[in-house]
Amino acid sequence: MITSAPNIDSIEYPFPAKPAVLSDAEKADYKARIKQLLIEQDAVLVAHYYTDPEIQALAEETGGCVSDSLEMARFGRDHPAKKLIVAGVKFMGETSKILSPEKTVLMPTLEATCSLDIGCPIDKFSEFCDAHPDHTVVVYANTSAAVKARADWVVTSSIALEIVEHLDAEGKKIIWGPDRHLGSYIAKETGADMLMWQGDCIVHDEFKAKALRELKIQHPNAAILVHPESPANVVALADAVGSTSQLIKAAQTMANQEFIVATDRGIFYKMQQAAPGKTLIEAPTGGNGATCKSCAHCPWMAMNGLQAIEASLSAEDKTQHEVFVDDALRDEALIPLNRMLDFAKTLNMKVKGNA
């Protein structure tokens, strides 16, 4: 059973300006400078799947990693570097700080945010949870440290189904936040009693079923890969539904030579590595004559440019770059996060795959 939380006030997303276009020579200079600064400052660069391919390549070239937000944080925790440079959005920097409180965590800009985070403010969400004290609170990892601290469970898209099935088997009613599409997908798959917070990812929310069907006609042999943060009518067309890492695995293992991919196009960098020679096609984010806000690429992820990364390392004033999480808040956020990780161990499952 699915019931919905009331919509919060209309949200005005603060869409950022795109980074300045750099010449090849400027790019080479920034990359060389970043590599030197990483060495000098005992730092490592971790980048999300949705950042620009040149940022993902730079992370790999310098001994960092490219992954989902939880794996980025775990990599940073386990890496010997004293400083982490997190190329992603703010909640990812917070997750890294939660797992590595003793390390300095920097971001190219703290203004890089997420529509799921913006759409789930802690005051409104807490008020809603307080109004339903008989519900178990389950939140997606794509949330602020404060929202995680308010939750009973934190989940990624790779383990959300298993955890909700577990809670449903115990007779628990669930508050789910913030992504309504992912929550609805899980509710449909599990039959759990879920009260849904009404947030969404602007990238995945814009994929269009009608246009996707038309694209499939043009590419009849292509498999459709869909992230479950997408609308239900888009998910219904999928040949494979899964987290970011699960979609990469699908492209690698499925026999198809063409794939229509309904997630942020930043994934193409790692997907092409995993499935060389296969053709990847962006799923449509607008119908005929329609416009799109994200056009299949998160505008805040795009803020992680070479100039911003260099600035996070070279700036004397780190105010616009360093991530802090209050110790008490960190301790509270670790409880539901560790609950998920401990549950994963009982399934002998490695948790990956939030957006």
From TrEMBL:
Binding annotation for [4Fe-4S] cluster: C114, C201, C298
Signal sequence region: none
Main location class: cytoplasm
EC number from the UniProt entry: 2.5.1.72
Cofactor(s) named in the record: [4Fe-4S] cluster
Organism superkingdom: Bacteria
Catalytic activity: iminosuccinate + dihydroxyacetone phosphate = quinolinate + phosphate + 2 H2O + H(+)
UniProt KW keywords: 4Fe-4S, Cytoplasm, Iron, Iron-sulfur, Metal-binding, Pyridine nucleotide biosynthesis, Transferase
KW Membrane (keyword) present: no
Residue sites binding iminosuccinate per the record: H48, S69, Y140, A141, N142, S157, H227, P228, E229, T244
Cofactor binding note of this UniProt entry: Binds 1 [4Fe-4S] cluster per subunit.
Localization per record: Cytoplasm
Pathway(s) annotated for this protein in UniProt: Cofactor biosynthesis; NAD(+) biosynthesis; quinolinate from iminoaspartate: step 1/1
Alphabetized InterPro entries for the sequence: NadA (IPR003473), NadA_sf (IPR036094), Quinolinate_synth_A_type1 (IPR023513)
Pfam families for this protein: NadA
NCBIfam families: nadA, PRK09375.1-1, PRK09375.1-2
Protein task: Catalyzes the condensation of iminoaspartate with dihydroxyacetone phosphate to form quinolinate.
HAMAP family hit by this protein: NadA_type1
UniProt family annotation: Belongs to the quinolinate synthase family. Type 1 subfamily.
Name of the protein: Quinolinate synthase
Organism: Shewanella japonica
Phylogenetic placement of the source organism: Bacteria, Pseudomonadati, Pseudomonadota, Gammaproteobacteria, Alteromonadales
